[in-house]
Specification:
This protein is α+β, with helices and mostly antiparallel strands. The protein is 23% helix and 18% strand.
């Protein structure tokens, strides 16, 4: 399980708007909000953290994900007053590398 701090490019929980953390099921990436039991797809094979996990990890993650509702993620709009200036600038740049700066996707809780 990994915890990105401010993952703009992958959206957030549609209830609380937080980016949550992600779980791997092999190379499938699922972002989750534990508080609201929501999950949304983050893509396939984008992060290398799956290589440090076992089939048991993926089975456990898959069982947990089945208890969450799949949803469309929340994406903030430019000009949203809830965005801080730094985050708004990153969104405006549309540069995913900028948006991901400082996020450690390989950290494990």
């Amino acid at each position: 399980m990994s915890s990105p701090s401010s993952v703009v490019g992958f959206g957030g929980c549609p209830v609380c708007r937080k980016s949550g953390h992600y779980l791997n099921v092999f190379k499938d990436i699922w972002f989750v909000c534990d508080e609201h039991k929501k999950r949304w797809s983050g893509g396939y094979g984008l992060f290398s953290s799956w290589q440090n996990e076992t089939e048991d990890d993926w089975e456990r993650n898959e069982k947990l994900l089945m208890t969450y509702d799949e949803c469309k993620p929340f994406y903030p709009e430019l000009g949203d007053p809830s965005l801080d200036d730094e985050l708004a600038a990153k969104l405006e740049s549309r540069n995913l590398e900028d948006a991901m700066e400082g996020v450690d996707f390989d950290s494990v809780d």
